[in-house]
Amino acid sequence: MDAKPHHKNEEYRRILIQTIHTCAIQFPTIAKEAISVLAEFMGDSNHSSAIDVVQFIREVMEKFPELRKTILRQLLENFESIKSGKVYRMALWVMSEYSEDKEDIKECISSIRAALGELPLLASEIVNGL
Question: Kind and range of the H or E element at 46?
Fold first, then answer.
């Protein structure tokens, strides 16, 4: 009996994301606000909702170049919350494609390192004094 309400919540969330996506593409003035609302869903346990959000981010980045810096910042702020490998791959692609200058690249690398945590190789180098 619990599966049905959970399934309805997932379906409702997916429809909500798709509706906000459609509105933001048709009315570019709300795209930035829509991204800030939807970016929180990237870490959602519902895999398909998170994918929809990253696809939306990719589309907005492509269609509205003037919003790229702002949207990249929002993506980076929510990067650590991602739980799905496919969403990580898509987010990494967006970050690499739309990082426009050195500062963007540095911020992306910092976000990636923060999400990964300390690498075992780095820890062994510190222990061995390298």
Answer: none
